[in-house]
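Notebook entry, structure prediction.
Reason for the run: the old model in the group folder had no record of what sequence produced it. Starting over properly, with the input documented here first.
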Amino acid sequence: EVQLAESGGGVVPAGGSLTLSCATSGAILYEYVIGWFRQAPGKPREEVSSITSDGSRYYAESVKGRFTMSNVDGKKTVHLQMNGLRPEDTAVYFCALHLHQRWTGVAWELPLPQSEYEYWGQGTQVTVSS
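New structure, fully documented this time:
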């Protein structure tokens, strides 16, 4: 069973930093896209960043230059380093996975539609105080 587990959320003052982690388990990651999404109260879920198995990355305009996504631990864990946090970054952050369980040679086009992600974590709360 494929599972995603987020960690690293918390409360920080404006201008502070946090690193979120997304640990994957239960699958061999041949070709994949892992995305970070967030949802603030009363707002739709939006994509923040994503990374593909071939190393391509996507960042939403609102986080470019502040957030950095990276693979660690043989690519089973993904980090989202968030610097210069703002009150408007307050949200529940989710990671999600779109997975090919065999090699297809796909050329990813980012951002991937949210509906393409098959697996989702439970989310971790990030609160930025002003």
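Summary: The two ends are 40 Å apart (CA to CA).
The old model has been moved to the deprecated folder.
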